[in-house]
Write a structure and sequence with these properties.
Blueprint: H1 3-7, E1 10-15, E2 24-28, E3 34-39, H2 40-59
Parallel strand pairs: 1-3
Antiparallel strand pairs: 2-3
């Protein structure tokens, strides 16, 4: 992996849910920064799943 990719950052931006678009798309900048546009519905579902997993771990 190129050094610029290792040192780059990933920024997430939410976009409205649309059926004709993929769940996320990446824009790579020359300095290695990645801007990931994420479908809002998928983002909410991922946060919900993460919260459930954390709750289950803490309940043990």
């Amino acid at each position: 992996m190129p050094a610029s990719r290792k040192s780059g950052k990933v920024f997430y931006t939410l976009r409205p849910s649309r059926e004709d678009l993929p769940p996320f798309s990446d824009i790579r900048l020359p300095d290695g920064t990645i801007i990931r546009r994420v479908d809002e519905a998928i983002h909410r579902r991922a946060l919900s799943n993460a919260a459930k997993a954390l709750t289950e771990r803490l309940d043990r």
